[in-house]
What we know:
The complex is a heterodimer of chains A (600) and B (609). In chain A, 65% of the residues lie in helices and 9% in strands. In chain A, a hairpin with a 2-residue loop joins β4 and β5. Chain A folds into 3 domains: 185 residues, Up-down Bundle (ABC transporter transmembrane region fold); 114 residues; 251 residues, Rossmann fold (3-Layer(aba) Sandwich), CATH 3.40.50.300. In chain A, the strands form 2 sheets. Chain A has a 6-stranded mixed beta sheet, sandwiched between helices. In chain A, α6 packs antiparallel against α7, α8 packs antiparallel against α10 and α16 packs across α18. Chain A is an alpha/beta fold. With 609 residues, chain B is of the alpha/beta class. Chain B has a 6-stranded mixed beta sheet with strand order 6-7-8-3-9-10, sandwiched between helices. Chain B has a 4-stranded antiparallel beta sheet with strand order 2-1-4-5, covered by helices on one side. In chain B, β7, α18 and β8 form a beta-alpha-beta unit. In chain B, 43% of the residues are buried.
Amino acid sequence: MNRINQFFKWMKGNKKYYLFAALLLISLQYFRTLTPLFIQHTIDSVILGKESNLPIFIKNMMEADTVTKQLFLVAVIYSLFALMRVTIMFIRRMINAFYTERIAYNMRNTLYKKLQDLSFSYHSHAETGDLIQRCTTDVETYRVFIGEQLIEILRLVFLISFSIMQMSRMSNEMTMISLLITPIIFTASFVYFLKVKKIFKRVEEAEAKMTTTLQESITGIRVVKAFAKEKFEIEKFDKHSKKYLKEDFNLLKIMAVYWGGTDFIIFIQYCLTLTIGIYYTVNGALDPGQFIAFLSYVGMIVWPMRQLGRIVGDFGKTTVALDRLDEIMLKESEHDGDSTNTPKITGFVEFENVGFQFDDDDVPLLKDISFKVNRGESLAIVGKTGSGKSTLINLMIRLLDNQKGSIKFDGVDIKDINKKHLRRNVGIIMQEPFLYSRTLYENIRIMNKDAHEEKVFKAASIASLHNDIKGFEGGYETMVGERGVTLSGGQKQRVAIARMLLDDKPVVIFDDSLSAVDTETDIQIRTALKDHWNNTTMFIITHRITTAMEADKIIVLDKGEIVEMGNHESLLRDDGIYAQLWDIQTNVEYDFMKLDKGVE
Amino acid sequence: MEYFEEEEYSNSKFDMKVWYKIFSYMKPFKRNVIFGIFAAIVLGAIDTIYPLINKYAIDEIIETQSLEKLPYFIAFYVFIMITIGFMVFGFIINAGQVQQKLSFALRKDAFKKLHELPFSYYDRTPVGWIMARMTSDSRNLSDILSWGLIDLSWGMLMMTGIIIVMFIINLKLALITLSVLPILIGLSIYFKKKILKAYRKIRKENSKITGAFNEGIMGAKTTKTLVLEEQNFNDFDHLTSKMKRHSIRAAMFAGLYFPSILFIATVVTSLVIYYGGIDVSTNVISYSVLYLFIAYIGSFFEPIMQLANILARFQQAQASAERIITLIEQEPEILDSPEVIEKYGDAINFKKENWEELVGAVEFENVTFKYSKGETVLANFNLKVEAGHSVALVGHTGAGKSTIVNLICRFYEPTSGRILIDGSNYKNRSIGWLHDNLGYVLQSPHLFSGTILENIRYGRPDATLEEVIEAAKLVEADNFITKFKEGYETEVGEGGARLSVGEKQLISFARALLADPKILILDEATSSVDTKTEKSIQRAIKIVLEGRTSFVIAHRLSTITSSNRILVLENGIIEESGTHAELIKLEKRYFKLYTNQFKSKVIEDSKNG
């Protein structure tokens, strides 16, 4: 039952079209089995003066006094009948395309929306390639299933049934004989496609390996060349390419056996039906026209039987695809049951005994974090990798939710603030920002689509980006991302800063966001930013101690706890971790200064 | 993943030269081609003969009311049955092999070529383009030249056969039947082209949608933080709506195609029924002739549709062929002279016995370098580096650091001037000789799928496990490697995806150390790693550089200060050159570059102090 629900839930709103198309399809199969009867009618009734097997109402339309007139009517009615048939056929195909594409469209949109709404922790564990595979290949599998395979099964079953029905109206014995071998055809096909899946998989794996080798060798061409490993790479690729060839050949062999073998079996059935048919016709149990009609009907049974076995044998794919899609769809969205409150946020931030721990972890990432930052102040957060800096930031914009204590903006607990509203007010500039595949101009303007050109240029200037952009061939119209130029880490960071500058946010967080910018530019940008954001509350996570030292307040995190808090001078005096970090990072520079002085 | 778009159709008309080249690839397996075509022709013949046998049964058995000839009929049928079984087998196995072998051969040659091409080729050719040549193009092409070609022979033979038999049996009915042939063919080609075009649009939209999904997932965090969900969704909806429209349009063409062919065929059948029927009723012909013609009209569909399909796909396949041939015939701009290859071997087969030992002195003599676009990066550049010395290259992006390094590696060659290694022009030695003695540690380390062990061994496959571990220990990679459950046998994943950036860097150091190159190029990364790893990396660099000629595109002060010589580059010119102490004394660019970081506080502090 669950399976059936799973199949139909994506069809919402399209079921009635589906049903209608199915009815049209069934009627088409009936019409198709009528066509051999026109020939039968011509030969048996019109020419030989025997029984016609056409339904009465069609037969009646072709009554006439002379053979020529009758033949003329047969030709006209047959053509008109065909016209009706192909018209219905076209209509059915269009309806089919219409709902299939609508279902696919809904699936894609639903999945996309869902993916965006899934929580941050989901995304940090998810594998991109796998997710994309689900959203494309699995959707396509279902689309083909709904739009083609399911329909095809229906078509084949009814074609076979109607053929049997028409045949049995002419001769029961002949019908039985015509069905003798068909179960074998079906079974052979079904079993074959059930078995061949494994081989298919092996071929796919071999091909994937070959493609990976190719891709790695090309992306790593510098390494290959620098180590003079061309021969090694060529041999490696050759090995994988041969392996693929071998697996593919194995598949080919059994494919050839299958097609050749089933063709052979199918012709046994033909031979059987015809031989006995001839016998009956000579005996007079069957009319010549009926014999010719049987020739057609055998074809309408044996070939569909093979096809049916093939489709049924290949069935499993869709259930697997739907299971994989459900894994995404059944996950909870992070906006489910979110608060609708949108209080004004000015930039006064309080942490009170905040603690956080992942469910599957036994050590808390943050413990008992408390501090206050007033509007317009800056707070630097320093600590080793893994000390909890990023977690703290993620809590502030509710990418993660703290289990203990409370975080307040202007006195309101963030859990009572709408997530999107919160994020609109708290800007974050990440260390590895993501740029969208649009032009640079659009990327900078992404949060403020109405921003004027001068504003965009100004933001880019503040972020020391304007000259870089002018250096590109396409200037601001240069495409970035998947289809465009690859920006350096530092350039991406500066784009992220520029885009933040176009939006006035009361709180801005720098998550090591100038790490890839050279020191000279770093200073330049920070100086410019200080002027621009003098009323903004700033949180600065940094590895560069020289950046941290300029903040109004500095906290040092270690193993999830605040171990030191103060400003540069007081922390140096305390001689703790901060002072230690200061020593490590400025050590060489101090030597350098000594040298410098020595020279002077 | 890259999503690559390009023109799918060739602009030029039929290009014999391209096809000739492709056909010459098929020579080694022409047996398969011939057998495949043979099987196809036999099958086509059987399709023609088969209704004749039924006609025989009607005329000789049913009409004569005597079962005497039934055994002949059965014998005929058994013969056909067996022939069909074998020929279908032969058809598939041969066509399939042509397809597989052709794409194998194309891939093989293209891959080999890719490894002969100089680095500049990769600078201007996106990876996606290359991948498309190697995968979809070679598949497209080999598909049409195997299944397509053999299907074509089947269809052509069957059509010719049917036409001949029709004319022999009954001229009038044959003419009636064939009168629609041009319409059928014309209609088929028209629809096939339309359908292919529509599908091309769908594929294009589809790759955009895949790209959008990719972006949605990769950029999920950014989207959340910038609250761009709705905006992105609207953009996405725009794409999927377009996809829906295109798909329905394609379905419309496909939905019109088959029914219209079917209708035309039925009209012809009606004509045959009428005219043939009259002749039957006046005993001019037997009704078996009527049967035969109706059966033939039915079997006409498939070859015509096949034919149209192949013709329509042909243009596409020619575009594929052109692109693959372009790749395979690409002339490497950097190639050893025949004399050099004669003596030292080519890039694939080394003649190590003739190689001189490389000591490591490097000299640039009046080197000028221009990119193919024309912009000059280096002009009359001179530099002499003693064997075993380390050189730090310092300067802004575009100052020429990478160019110098690429020239040393002979990824590029000087436009004019010479580069001497151990006192002789490096063009007089083979590229293999240089690269075999060269080590290169990249800014973003590239690892290959496989184990850590295999990756460290990359430059020296014969190294023992002890040597590998020793190298790893020296660069402090052993610590984290042994922490993995599988140790050195840990799979690194595609491109090393299962390791962190810092770990990958340390492994690439171990790899370089184990290869023990005479000349080492190091492109230092700026990406921030945690302090501990940073310390390990700094120590690893020191160890790797020790005792060999090295060129470092440097960012770390520790690397710079400990090198024998620092070059400060600006616009392809050495602005300053000397040791750390010397350059500080100058108080110019270098001094400024590294005092900047402490402008705000330390300098004042230390100067006052």
